[in-house]
């Protein structure tokens, strides 16, 4: 898997761990091993701007997901004309460590734990999961919990 991390936030983050987590989540979701994912860490002004532009919310948020190709769990790819699997470009997960740090304090865990939760959450959004409806919420957060639990057990 090609997982690129760009930290423009000015905050320290364990980028190697985020890459390993992302790989764990994508493997667990049976995404093509050559799929591409981008993780971007930004500061609050940049996240506020993205959140306003794309979600209509004039405040920084913790995570945004910008999907590219339509890859779904259990599918190795969208396929190609010759029937061979192609890896696809998943998209971008944008994280805001400053918001994650505040949320981590409120939740009573580390900022890294919060970033791992948000990274997993963002990847699931890239794969088409949502939590607007109660059934969707239960499915997405249940899956997120299982993926994080298996991640922690594997470390």
What order do the helices and strands come in, and which of them pair?
Blueprint: E1 2-7, H1 15-28, E2 36-41, H2 44-55, E3 63-67, E4 89-95, H3 97-107, H4 111-126, H5 134-154
Parallel strand pairs: 1-2, 2-4
Antiparallel strand pairs: 3-4
Helix pairs in contact: 1-4, 3-4, 4-5
- Major sheet details: 4 strands, mixed
SS class: alpha/beta
Helix and strand sequence = EHEHEEHHH
Count, helices: 5
Task: Please give the alpha-carbon distance between the first and last residues.
Answer: 19 Å
Strand order of the largest sheet: 1-2-4-3
Helix content: 40-55%
Radius of gyration: 15 Å
Morphology call: globular
Low-confidence stretches: 74-83
The tally of beta strands, per DSSP, is 4
Describe, in plain words, how this protein is organized in 3D.
Keywords: Cytoplasm, Endonuclease, Hydrolase, Metal-binding, Nuclease, Ribosome biogenesis, rRNA processing, Zinc. Single strand-specific metallo-endoribonuclease involved in late-stage 70S ribosome quality control and in maturation of the 3' terminus of the 16S rRNA. It comes from Actinocorallia libanotica. Its EC number is 3.1.-.-. With 155 residues, the chain is of the alpha/beta class. Helix content is 48%, strand content 15%. The protein has a four-stranded mixed β-sheet with strand order 1-2-4-3, with helices on both faces. Helix 1 links the parallel strand 1 and strand 2. The longest helix is centred in the last third of the chain and has 21 residues, at 134-154. The protein is globular. The two termini are 19 Å apart.
């Amino acid at each position: 898997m090609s997982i690129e991390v760009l930290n423009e936030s000015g905050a320290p983050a364990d980028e190697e761990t985020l890459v390993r987590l992302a790989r764990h989540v994508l493997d667990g979701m049976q995404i093509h091993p050559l799929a591409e994912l981008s993780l971007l860490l930004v500061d609050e002004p940049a996240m506020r701007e993205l959140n306003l532009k794309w979600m209509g919310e004039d405040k920084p948020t913790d995570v945004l997901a910008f999907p590219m190709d339509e890859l779904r769990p259990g599918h190795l790819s969208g396929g190609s004309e010759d029937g061979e699997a192609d890896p696809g470009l998943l998209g971008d997960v944008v994280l805001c460590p400053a918001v994650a740090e505040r949320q981590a304090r409120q939740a009573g865990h580390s900022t890294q734990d919060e970033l791992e939760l948000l990274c997993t959450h963002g990847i699931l959004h890239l794969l088409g999961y949502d939590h607007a409806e109660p059934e969707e919420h239960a499915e997405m957060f249940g899956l997120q919990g299982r993926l994080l639990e298996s991640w922690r057990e594997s470390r």
